[in-house]
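Anyone else keep sequences and structure tokens together like this?

Example one:
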Amino acid sequence: MEENNNSFKFIFRAFKRHIIIFLCIVFVCILFGGCYAKATIKPNYQSESLVSINGGDTKITPAIKSTITSKSLVVEVVYDHLKNKKVTHSDKSLITLDEIVQGLRVADTNTMLQVKITFANKDKKIVKAVLEEICAVSIEAVKEKYASNEIDVIAAASEPVSIARSAKLYVLLAGMIGIVVGAVFVLFYESQRNLLYETKDISKSAGHVFEIKYSKVKEDNHETSK
């Protein structure tokens, strides 16, 4: 019990003496985490839509999904439409073919008669407009290729939502690292400080003992000489 009390007192004394250093270490780590998050996390927004075949024997097969993502049947047509409609980024630059290809995704749902189409881009302004164009063009392409008039959009393009990693996670992680590093540094520094003072105390004690013994030997030699 006494040993535990001594350990607690040591930790309390260490943080009390070096609380400023501890807080500085935590602050620096949080600042670094925030700067790292700002430098590495890029904005990214996504909109999604559901496409369904409402009847007939046609199913949402891999072939149909590949048609929706086809560069020649869909992507290039979407690109031309967007250019003609003057759909541009916030900085007035035109969207590129590569942006459409990289942002377009087609995923299965829990039914063979539906497929989810999503589009993601760093510019929130254009995401919904691009997805609406992709859905319109891809549906026409599928209807033409498979001679089916039953395919249609059953859920319009949603409002764009952010899918970028959260900067708060980096800041929180950096803060936790700062607490650990700060605590280790403070406890290590305090232990070394105590060790230094203990060494000095031992040296002083040894010096006093040596002086006493030397004085006694000197007195004995003086009495012997008499």
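And example two:
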Amino acid sequence: MARPGRKRRQDVKRYPNQQPVRSLAQIEAETKSVAVEARMRHHGLNKHQAKRPDAGSVQGRLLMDGFLDEYDDDALTRFAQLRRDYMRAIDSPPASISVGLERQDRSFEDLLEDVDQSVRVVSEWNGLRKILGIHIDAILAVLTESSDPINRMSLRGGLAALRQHYRLPLRESYGTR
């Protein structure tokens, strides 16, 4: 019985389900080309910009655009790490319960160290939220890849507060972009 469509190549290795065997390099190249095309279409980047790894995030595109410099990038990266640590600290289950079927064998000192770390992270997060004030929404919009438009003036204020908090050099101006 004839199959519709073009004829299969006979010189290609196939899996038992008749799909052609592709190398990891081929799969990776196809995946990257799809990602580059999507970045070009969605964010209006040229091919050279879309191939850069930092083009995949709002923070990276603001850095490429020249709106952020390396100190702003460093401050945002530190803030993002603090946010991840904070979310882990408030969202994690109590250390005294077992996870799955295996019991976690941890010393009392390790548990106290985890509690101390969580208290430090939560304290630093709350302090930084007070420092950032109304600018925290703009900072979080960059880090969470929000589809809402970013208020660049508020982002500038938040970046200045982050630079001051992390004792990074302050910027003269943020230009007109």
